[in-house]
Amino acid sequence: MAARIIFNPTAGNGKARQLMESIQGLLPDDVEVVTTQYPGHAVELAREVAENEEMTVISLGGDGTHHEVINGLMPTAKATFAVLPAGTGNDFVRMLGYPTNPAEMLQIALMGPTRRLDVGRVNDQYFLTVSGVGFDAEVAGWVNRHEKHGNGTWVFLRAILKHLAQYRSQPVTVTVDGASREHMTFLIAVGNSRYYAGGMLMCPEAGLDNGLFHVIWVRQLSRLAVLPLLARVFRGSHVKHPAVETFLAAELTVTGPQHLLVHADGEIIGHLPATFSIVPEAIRVRVGRPV
């Protein structure tokens, strides 16, 4: 089976280049490597082969690169999808069971078993991990504008600390199954998978193949309450906090102040309003072990 590796050389502050160097000599003859040249290029490169059922499209980069590739493959996604993780957060691959050894990782990406997995959609963008509104979107926007030195967790924590003093909760309305509620809101996270921001277990009940989002709605918080709550996110115990509501949904709409950013897979994709919907079993993905 032929494969195309979509390689983002800027991903992971050098990690992507290192990974490519380590696997270069291991690539079979029927594997094509194409290099992204500008933001959005991975979408175009994936779209060129999205209709090829015999093709495996491998995203070599971070979650932002994977986000672009999946938006190139969707909505038809006849090609098989795989990843070679080399970014800041590497959150999508956490649920795929890939090995960490580059040679073994490549073997899974090329020949591993496949599973049909869900893809999320927010407005006109598709996403793999988590999409959301509020504080985390502001943090994601800052991270994407700055150099990502260090591991993913510390990069995001630095951005969190920077925004704590200035961010204010906003009035946000959530509509599910025709019923609407409004609350002052710190953030809303809509999870297709469990992790974001370099390993934060934001949506612990999310599954990549259950046809539902795990939605986390964090109401207004005092500044002193934010850091203790965020510390609980790494264990997934934040869901028990009195300011946190969780629920499962296949579709929801979020409205509020139009200046509020919306992120998907850590990439800023626009502003409110936002409609989120799950696309069940949308894409065939190579996995290392059961997800």
Which secondary structure elements does this structure contain, and how are they paired or packed?
Blueprint: E1 3-7, H1 15-23, E2 31-35, H2 41-47, E3 56-61, H3 63-73, E4 80-85, H4 102-111, E5 114-122, E6 125-127, E7 130-134, H5 135-145, H6 152-164, E8 170-176, E9 179-191, E10 213-219, H7 223-233, E11 244-249, E12 251-255, E13 261-264, E14 267-271, E15 274-286
Parallel strand pairs: 1-2, 1-3, 3-4
Antiparallel strand pairs: 5-6, 5-15, 7-9, 7-13, 8-9, 8-12, 9-10, 10-11, 12-15, 13-14
Keywords: ATP-binding, Kinase, Lipid biosynthesis, Lipid metabolism, Magnesium, Metal-binding, Nucleotide-binding, Phospholipid biosynthesis, Phospholipid metabolism, Transferase
Family: Belongs to the diacylglycerol/lipid kinase family.
Protein name: DAGKc domain-containing protein
